[in-house]
Design a protein that fits this description.
53% of the residues lie in helices and 16% in strands. With 137 residues, it is an alpha+beta fold. The chain has one domain: Arc Repressor Mutant, subunit A (Orthogonal Bundle), CATH 1.10.10. The strands form 2 sheets. The chain has a 3-stranded antiparallel sheet with strand order 3-5-4. Strands 1-2 form a two-stranded antiparallel sheet. The protein is extended and about 60 Å long. The two termini are 38 Å apart.
Length: 137
């Protein structure tokens, strides 16, 4: 059974969208380095926009655009305190997702480092198949 979500497009009636498409849209939203950095910062604590600027390293207008994308996606919420706007994660699961991504990437990079070391040492490695070798796994 395919799970579906309801998405409203252009004020029209809700459209039934397969869950895998909703997930793809969600991950597309995460597919920008500035957005990832913002979410990492907000995983630690709430931040004012002015606090994030030096940490993210982009112009204020660009940060504002990326924060708007995250707001529209429902990943962050904003609140005004005087002249400052403070952001927070809308769901603590976002911080957990970033931790899981870090764990996965650490494993992938460790595997690549092992392969690179093996290649540099001239070894065949356990899964390497060279052209012309018979009976290789």
């Amino acid at each position: 059974m395919v799970r579906r979500g309801s998405v409203v497009r252009n004020g029209a009636a809700p459209v039934s969208t397969p869950l895998y498409r909703l997930k793809a849209e969600f991950f597309k939203t995460l597919g920008h380095p500035v957005r990832i950095r913002v979410l990492e910062l907000l995983s630690e604590r709430d931040h004012a926009v002015s606090e994030m600027l030096p940490e993210v390293g982009v112009e204020a207008a660009h940060l504002s655009q990326q924060l708007a994308v995250l707001r529209r996606a429902g990943l962050v919420t904003a609140r005004r305190e005087g002249s400052a706007v403070h952001y927070t994660l809308a769901d603590p699961g976002v911080a957990e997702l970033l931790r899981v991504a870090r764990t996965i990437l650490t494993g992938v990079l460790a595997g690549q480092a092992e392969l690179l070391a093996d290649l540099r040492s001239g070894g065949d490695g356990p899964h390497e198949v060279r052209p012309g070798r018979r009976g290789a796994p």
